[in-house]
Design brief:
GO terms for molecular function: alanine-glyoxylate transaminase activity; L-serine-pyruvate transaminase activity. Belongs to the class-V pyridoxal-phosphate-dependent aminotransferase family. The protein is an alpha/beta fold. It is built from 13 helices and 14 strands. The chain starts with 10 loop residues before the first strand and ends with a helix. The structure holds pyridoxal-5'-phosphate.
Length: 375
C-alpha cells in the first residue's frame, strides 16, 4: 500500500459527514473492480460481518445499499408496514402516525410511551437514538424494554444515523429490531451508503407480509438474496453496489472492530471528548440544549448562544479559524444555537488534537465576536 496523506483542509466537525482517516480515503481510491468479481465478494461480505459486530448482534441481517441514511426509512416503510397498520413515532414524524412528543432538550417520557402502546396495536415503534437537531440522546434500552413489556409484537425501530459507532448499541441484548444508519457519521466513511440491520424477528414479520413491498429499489425481496449471497461468498446482482465506497467502508469497519481500541474504549473516548468540549463550553458561560447530562449525546454537542448573538456571529468566525461547525436546525430555536460534531477519528485519535483545535477556535471566536459587538 502506498503511503497516502490527505491534503490539508478545514477541520470538519459537523454532525456528519465527519473526518475520515487517510486509510479510509485511500481505500476509496481503489482501482475499478467488477462488483461480481471473486476479489470484491469478500469485501462486501466482511462489511456485512463487521457491521454486526459494531451493533453487538450475532443474528441481525445487515442491508448495505447505495443511498443515504434516509433510504433506511424507506426500507422500513416499504418492507415492514402494510396498509392500515399503525406506527408510533417518538420525537419526529414520518409516516401517517401517532406521535409522542418530548419537550425541547429532553427525551420522551416512558409513561407516555406505555400509555400509547396500551391504547392501540402498533406494528412498529420508531425513535431517534441521537436527535441531530438537539443532541438529545434517548435511552434506547429503556424504550425497547417498555415495548417488550407492554406490546411485545411491536417492532422497535431505531434511527441510529447519528449514534452508530459513537454510542453503545446492543441490538440483541436490548431487543432492538431495526437499526438504520449511514456511512458518513460515526462509521467514518464518505457519504453514500445506507446501512440497516434487521433482527430475525423483523425478517419474519417481513416474510409474513400479505401484500408485496411498496418499493422497487428498497424491497428486501430484492436485497435479502443479494446480502445472503455475498456473505456466503458468491456474487449476486440486483443493482450495482458503490464498489469503491464498500472498500472504504471495510477499511473503516476494520479500524473500528479490529483496531487497537475495543468498541467499549471507543465509546469511552467519545464520552471523554464530549466532556472536554462541554467543560470548555461551560467555562465560556454557555448552555447546552439537552437539559441534563443524562440525555446529552456523546458524538455531538448543541450549544445555546448568549442573548444578542446569532449563529452568524460564531459559525463564520469558526470557519475563518479552519473549523467547520453547523448552525441550528430545530425550528423552535433555529437561530439561537449551533452544533459541533465530534465522532470517529476526531476523538479516537487524540494525537490529532481535534478537540483542542475546536476549543481554541471557540474561545477566539467568542472573544472576537464580543469585541466587535463592543466596537
Ligand atoms: C443525518 C441523519 C439522518 C439523515 O441521514 P442522510 O444520510 O442525510 O439521509 C437521519 N437521521 C439522523 C438522526 C441523522 O443524524
Amino acid at each position: 500500500m502506498t503511503t497516502f496523506t490527505q491534503e490539508p483542509h478545514k477541520l470538519l466537525v459537523i454532525p456528519g459527514p465527519i473526518e475520515v482517516t487517510d486509510e479510509v480515503l485511500y481505500a476509496n481510491a481503489h482501482p475499478s473492480m467488477s462488483h461480481m468479481s471473486a476479489d470484491f465478494v469478500p469485501v462486501l461480505g466482511d462489511c456485512i460481518r463487521m457491521t454486526r459486530e459494531v451493533l453487538f448482534t450475532t443474528t441481525g441481517q445487515p442491508f448495505i445499499i447505495a443511498g443515504s441514511g434516509t433510504l433506511g426509512w424507506d426500507q422500513v416503510a416499504a418492507n415492514l408496514v402494510e396498509a392500515g397498520e399503525s406506527a408510533l413515532v417518538l420525537n419526529s414524524g414520518y409516516f401517517e402516525v401517532d406521535e409522542v412528543y418530548a419537550d425541547l432538550g429532553t427525551s420522551v417520557d416512558l409513561v407516555e410511551v406505555e400509555k400509547a402502546l396500551s391504547s392501540k396495536k402498533y406494528k412498529i415503534l420508531t425513535f431517534t437514538h441521537v436527535d441531530t437537531s438537539t443532541a438529545v440522546l434517548s435511552d434506547a434500552q429503556a424504550i425497547a424494554a417498555t415495548v417488550q413489556r407492554v406490546s411485545p409484537d411491536t417492532l422497535v425501530v431505531m434511527d441510529g444515523v447519528c449514534s452508530v459507532a459513537s454510542e453503545e448499541i446492543r441490538m440483541d441484548a436490548w431487543g432492538i429490531d431495526i437499526v438504520l444508519t449511514a456511512s458518513q457519521k460515526g462509521l467514518g466513511t464518505p457519504p453514500g451508503l445506507s446501512i440497516l440491520v434487521a433482527s430475525q424477528k423483523a425478517i419474519k414479520v417481513f416474510e409474513a407480509r400479505k401484500t408485496p413491498p411498496t418499493s422497487y429499489y428498497a424491497s428486501w425481496k430484492k436485497w435479502l438474496p443479494v446480502m445472503q449471497a455475498y456473505e456466503r461468498g458468491s456474487a449476486a446482482y440486483f443493482a450495482t453496489p458503490p464498489v469503491n465506497l464498500v472498500y472504504a467502508f471495510r477499511t473503516s469497519l476494520t479500524q473500528i472492530t479490529k483496531g487497537p481500541q475495543s468498541l467499549e474504549e471507543r465509546f469511552a473516548l467519545h464520552r471523554k471528548g464530549s466532556q472536554r468540549l462541554r467543560d470548555a463550553v461551560a467555562e465560556l458561560g454557555l448552555k447546552q440544549l439537552p437539559t441534563s447530562p443524562a440525555v446529552a449525546a456523546n458524538g455531538m454537542t448543541a450549544i445555546y448562544l448568549p442573548d444578542g448573538y446569532a449563529a452568524s456571529d460564531i459559525v463564520p468566525r469558526m470557519l475563518k479559524r479552519n473549523v467547520v461547525v453547523a448552525g441550528g436546525l430545530h425550528k423552535d430555536v433555529k437561530d439561537k444555537y449551533f452544533r459541533i460534531g465530534h465522532m470517529g477519528v476526531s476523538v479516537t485519535d487524540e494525537s490529532r488534537g481535534d478537540i483542542d483545535k475546536i476549543i481554541s477556535a471557540l474561545r477566539e471566536s467568542f472573544a472576537d465576536a464580543a469585541a466587535s459587538k463592543k466596537a
